[in-house]
Write a structure and sequence with these properties.
Elements: H1 3-10, E1 47-51, E2 54-56, E3 63-65, H2 73-86, E4 90-92, E5 109-112, E6 130-133, H3 141-144, H4 148-155, E7 160-165, H5 167-180, E8 185-193, E9 200-203, E10 206-209, H6 213-225, E11 229-231, H7 233-239
Parallel strand pairs: 1-4, 1-7, 4-6, 5-6, 7-8, 8-11
Antiparallel strand pairs: 2-3, 9-10
């Protein structure tokens, strides 16, 4: 992939997308972080999982950003640049209300369809680094995409670094989906946008409204109890430098 294609995929403009992080990775992970889907050390020490930050651009030939993540674009660009430099796998989804990709929208992106019976994509995993999980109108993506768990297990990473859009709903669901698929997960605590307010989720502790500090604290506490670690962007970048 040449530099021109990289910048189109990143959605480069005034955000400094061409500035890649320097240095070689000595990303440290313990033996317990080895992928549970394979044997021995993982093929990749980490992979990036972007929940709903991206969508097809208006021209239909590259990737843009969802409006809700505009305050996070600089941080997102640093993560995408890191993935390109380290050749780390990057999996992403698009919000149900966004401009979703089609199978042939962006040639450099491997489209992973909803239907578990469609398995032709598996033969292209080794040739690709960017992976798009198709989504339908339901935000429980791992429940409705029959290939989602198969993809993350096949990529065999030591830990998935998750971030993006819709913390109280889509990120919550995908964190739990990754865990159910036997994956190690790290949430970037300063690289996500909350869900919209006005939705209520029932829990054992009562009903919580989304996009409130109370619900955010509840979810982070639950994630940690489930074994999810949290880190800021700078903490994560320091660990891979």
């Amino acid at each position: 992939m040449n530099r021109r294609h990289v910048l189109k995929l990143l959605g480069a403009g005034s955000c400094g997308a061409a500035t890649l992080l320097a240095g070689r990775s000595l990303y440290r992970y313990s033996a317990s972080q080895a992928s549970r889907g394979g044997t021995g050390e993982p093929k990749n020490p980490f992979g990036l999982f972007d929940v709903d930050s991206r969508e097809l651009n208006k021209a239909g030939d590259g990737l843009g950003f969802r409006p809700r993540v505009e305050p996070l674009i600089d941080r997102l660009m640093r993560l995408y640049a890191l993935a390109e430099q380290r050749r780390a796998p990057l999996v992403f989804t698009t919000c149900c209300s966004g401009r979703m990709l089609r199978a042939d929208s962006v040639p450099e992106v491997l489209f992973v369809p909803l239907d578990a019976a469609q398995r032709q994509w598996e033969g292209q995993i080794r040739e690709r680094r960017l992976f798009y999980l198709e989504k339908n109108a339901n935000y429980h993506m791992f429940e409705y995409n029959g290939n989602a768990a198969r993809l993350v297990q096949a990529l065999n990473v030591g830990e998935w670094i998750i971030f993006g859009n819709g913390f109280d709903m889509c990120i919550d669901s995908d964190v739990r989906g990754l865990l159910a698929a036997g994956q190690k997960v790290c949430l970037l605590s300063d690289v996500y946008a909350r869900s919209a307010r006005g939705y209520f989720v029932p829990t054992a502790r009562g009903r919580f409204e989304t996009a409130t500090p109370e619900n955010e604290a509840r979810l982070i506490s639950e994630f940690r109890q489930l074994g999810v670690r949290t880190a800021t962007l700078e903490e994560f970048l320091a660990s891979v430098s």
